[in-house]
Structure formats: structure tokens, C-alpha cells
Amino acid sequence: MARRPAERGKARFTMWMDKEMLKQLEKVRADTGKGSVADVVREAVSVYSSLMAAKDRGIKFWFESKSGEKCQIWLLPGAAPFDET
């Protein structure tokens, strides 16, 4: 990630990612009606930051699996340690 000069209190970054990730982000952009992949990434970063701040405050996030079991939501990059499919 390369930082560019800030303008009006904002920072600008260049981010490199593999083609498959860009393809997934383009699908999310199209599905959500966002104006750009950058809009998708900005929202994702904001959500991730909020989730991590809540986690740091001791808040736990849970979901109910198809079998009725309560499972903690996976907040780390990569695949969850379980599969609901």
C-alpha cells in the first residue's frame, strides 16, 4: 500500500491485490450499487474497524448454525474454522 499526499484531512492509498479479490470486490460493488470498488473497500474498512473496536471492548458476536449451535463470528481474515455450507 502506498500513501499519497493528504487532501482536506483525508489520506489516499494505492492498494495492490490479486485479480480474484478484485473480481470479488467488483461483484460486491455491482450487487450493492456502490459507485466504485474504492467505495466498497472504504465501507469494509469502516465495518472491520468498528467490529475490532467492539471486540476490544469485550463484545462478542455470535450466530446460530444450521444445527442450532451458537458459534462465535470469525473476525479474522481468511476462512472461518467451520463450514456452514
Task: Describe the protein.
The radius of gyration is 16 Å and the shape is extended. The chain has a two-stranded antiparallel ribbon with strand order 1-2. A two-stranded antiparallel ribbon has the order 3-4. It is built from two helices and four strands; from the N terminus they run ββααββ. The protein has a domain at 18-72. Strand 1 and strand 2 (10-14) form a beta hairpin. The protein is of the alpha+beta class and 85 residues long.
Q: Give the helix/strand class.
A: alpha+beta
Adjacency order of strands in the biggest sheet: 1-2
Query: How confident is the prediction overall: mean pLDDT?
Result: 84
Q: Please estimate the helix content.
A: 40-55%
Spatial gap, N to C terminus = 34 Å
Query: What percentage of amino acids are in beta strands?
Result: 15-25%
The total of beta strands comes to 4
Put simply, the count of helices is 2
Main beta sheet, described?
Answer: 2 strands, antiparallel
- Which shape, going by the Cα principal axes? extended
Which series of helices and strands comes N to C?
EEHHEE
Give the low-confidence spans: none
* Cα gyration radius (Å): 16 Å
Secondary structure layout:
Blueprint: E1 2-7, E2 10-14, H1 19-32, H2 37-56, E3 62-64, E4 70-72
Antiparallel strand pairs: 1-2, 3-4
Helix pairs in contact: 1-2
